Structure formats: C-alpha cells, structure tokens
C-alpha cells in the first residue's frame, strides 16, 4: 500500500493578499472604529485582571470597592455603585461576597437611616494590601504592549471620555 504525500494548497499572490487582509481585519476595523477597539481592549484587560486577582480570591469589582473604602472611608452601596460605575445589582453581590469573606461590614449609615454604610474591616485592609502588592505585575501583564508614556496617555484619554459621560 502506498501513501500519497499530503496535498499542499497552492495559492496565488492575490489569494495570499486576501488571506492577509482577512487576518488583519480586526486591526483595520479597530483603527477606524475606536468604540470597537475600546470594547475589545476592555475585554482583554478585564480577563487579564481577573486572572491575576484569582490568586487573592477577589474580583476586579471587589478590589475597587476595597480600594475606595480605604481611600475615602465608609460609603453607601449607592455611592460605591455611582462612583465606581458598577451596576447596583452587581454591587449587591460584590458587597455580599466581601461581607461573607469578612472584608467589609454593613453598618447603619450615620446620616441616612434607610441606607447602610459599607465599612472596611481590618481583615479587608490586609487583603487590600496584598492585592495592591500585585498591581504592578497586573499592569505589566495587562498593558505589556504599551510603554509607560503610552499607558499615561491611555489613562488620560479614557478618563476624559468617562468625565464627559
């Protein structure tokens, strides 16, 4: 029994150019449509962040909550949701998880009896310090394609978009 060598596909130069155009389609589209590029980049960076934060047993949203509570003190869930731009329904689950882990406490809000103040616990402060120690590596992983100057420019431009909306 004889075996035939595998068949190789012969392509013409125009076919090769077409294949290259197909392979580079998203890059071309992203250059023309910054909205699409930003959405895709957000997904890529969010995945990198989530992968890094699994080591600390917190999500990216939970990290933001811990950071804000550390920086500004006790906040209502509504304040956290509005300032961090996290949907209220997601915020409830986020805080529930942090509370179950002993990282935050819900206490009666001093100025609004209808609301709870979310407070960082000493354990939450320790957990935040651990997570923050990994942030430089996280940034290097998520933004490895950018120089430090490009990272600053990106942060400035994204902040400008967020401030306008």
Could you explain how this protein is built, in words?
The chain is mostly helical and about 160 residues long. The protein has one domain: Orthogonal Bundle (Arc Repressor Mutant, subunit A). About 65% of the residues lie in helices and about 5% in strands. It is built from nine helices and three strands, in the order ααααβααββααα. It has helices spanning about 15-25, 25-30, 35-55, 60-70, 75-85, 90-100, 120-135, 135-140, 150-165; strands at about 75, 105-110, 115-120. It has a three-stranded antiparallel β-sheet. A hairpin with a 7-residue loop joins strand 2 (about 105-110) and strand 3. The radius of gyration is 23 Å and the shape is elongated. It starts with 12 loop residues before the first helix and ends with a helix. The model has no long low-confidence stretch (mean pLDDT about 85).
Write the layout of secondary structure elements.
Layout: H1 13-23, H2 25-32, H3 34-53, H4 60-72, E1 75-76, H5 77-84, H6 88-100, E2 104-108, E3 116-120, H7 122-133, H8 135-142, H9 148-164
Antiparallel strand pairs: 1-3, 2-3
Helix pairs in contact: 2-3, 3-8, 4-7, 5-6
Name of the CATH architecture: Orthogonal Bundle
Number of domains: 1
CATH C-level class is Mainly Alpha
Helix content: 55-70%
N-to-C SSE string, H for helix and E for strand = HHHHEHHEEHHH
The low-pLDDT segments are: none
What is the H level of CATH, i.e. the homologous superfamily?
A: Winged helix-like DNA-binding domain superfamily/Winged helix DNA-binding domain
Main beta-sheet strand count, sense and barrel state? 3 strands, antiparallel
**Cα radius of gyration in angstroms:** 23 Å
What is the first-to-last residue Cα distance? 71 Å
């Amino acid at each position: 029994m004889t075996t035939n060598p595998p068949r190789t596909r012969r392509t013409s130069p125009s076919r090769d150019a077409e294949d290259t155009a197909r392979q580079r389609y998203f890059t071309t589209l992203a250059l023309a449509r910054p909205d699409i590029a930003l959405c895709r980049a957000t997904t890529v960076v969010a995945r990198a962040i989530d992968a890094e934060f699994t080591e600390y047993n917190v999500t990216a949203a939970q990290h933001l909550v811990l950071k804000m509570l550390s920086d500004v003190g006790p906040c209502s869930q509504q304040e956290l949701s509005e300032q961090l731009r996290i949907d209220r329904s997601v915020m409830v689950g986020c805080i529930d998880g942090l509370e179950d882990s002993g990282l935050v406490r819900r206490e009666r809000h001093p100025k609004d009896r209808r609301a709870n103040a979310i407070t960082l616990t000493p354990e939450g402060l320790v957990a935040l310090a651990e997570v923050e120690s990994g942030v430089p590596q996280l940034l290097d992983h998520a933004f490895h394609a950018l120089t430090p100057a490009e990272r600053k420019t990106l942060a400035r431009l994204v902040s400008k978009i967020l401030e306008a909306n």
